[in-house]
Specification:
The complex is a heterodimer of chains A (116) and B (115).
Chain A lengths: L4 E3 L2 E4 L5 E6 L6 E8 L3 E9 L14 E5 L5 E5 L8 E8 L10 E2 L3 E5 L1
Parallel strand pairs in A: 2-10
Antiparallel strand pairs in A: 1-3, 3-7, 4-5, 4-8, 6-7, 8-9, 8-10
Chain B lengths: L2 E3 L4 E5 L4 E3 L2 E3 L4 E8 L5 E7 L5 E3 L5 E5 L4 E6 L8 E9 L8 E2 L3 E6 L1
Parallel strand pairs in B: 2-12
Antiparallel strand pairs in B: 1-4, 3-9, 5-6, 5-10, 7-8, 8-9, 10-11, 10-12
The chains are: A mainly beta (116), B mainly beta (115).
Chain lengths: 116, 115
């Protein structure tokens, strides 16, 4: 079946502008994650949605970052008043709870954000 | 706090030789451990995970990893490297019984396999 998709694949914006990044998870996956991949810093957890539970926002770096997940499917990550340090690849992943062990997270191709 | 260390930024190996990509972790309690691979301009692909039981875990593309609790390590191995294995490899950890499923990733190791 289709994997996780993200749009746009690339986004160039000017400092101070707002951006929205979209993630379409694998159909039926109840869990959705956002990570950020910066050069030399590996992957950094941002936020996690599981079903109707309150999201885990513990990884969001500032209040300029927010995310929502509508209808338990598509998610949008919004960055307000972008800064140059926000430049990174933003990765979305989804998973489905499995009994007896951790979910396997399946990643999308990412959105490369460049803030000029 | 949970953390993952991948001490090598890059590993170079000749095609046909065995390869090892190192990973050590720090977590309170017992861990779940993962390896992901990222090919150029592509998303992360799941390779394998350790849950419990047998310390040697076999995964995709002929890769395997050995969980060593005493050394808190989860090194990735392959008996015979292929040029097509050249990619960026990430180790990740999650604490068993943790409140969320978020993964803590290492900084990645670039594997370069020379023909």
């Amino acid at each position: 079946g289709a994997g996780v998709s993200q749009s746009p694949s690339n986004k160039v914006t000017e400092k101070g502008k707002d951006v929205e990044l979209r993630c379409d998870p694998i159909s039926g996956h109840t869990a959705l994650y956002w990570y950020r991949q910066s050069l030399g810093q590996g992957l950094e957890f941002l936020i996690y949605f599981q079903g109707n539970s309150a999201p885990d926002k513990s990884g969001l770096p500032s209040d300029r970052f927010s995310a929502e997940r509508t209808g338990g499917s598509v998610s949008t990550l919004t960055i307000q008043r972008t800064q140059q340090e926000d430049s990174a690849v933003y990765l979305c992943a989804s998973s489905h709870p499995q009994g007896g062990g951790p979910d396997t997270q399946y990643f999308g191709p990412g959105t490369r954000l460049t803030v000029l | 706090a949970q953390s993952v260390a991948q001490p090598e930024d890059q590993v170079n190996v000749a095609e046909g030789n065995p390869l090892t990509v190192k990973c050590t972790y720090s977590v309170s309690g017992n861990p779940y451990l993962f390896w992901y691979v990222q090919y150029p301009n592509r998303g992360l692909q799941f390779l394998l995970k350790y849950i419990t039981g047998d310390n040697l875990v076999k995964g995709s593309y002929g890769f395997e990893a050995e969980f060593n609790k005493s050394q808190t390590s989860f090194h990735l191995k392959k008996p015979s490297a292929l040029v097509s294995d050249s990619a960026l490899y990430f180790c990740a950890v999650r604490r068993k019984g943790g409140a969320t499923n978020k993964l803590i990733f290492g900084t990645g190791t670039l594997l370069a396999v020379q023909p």
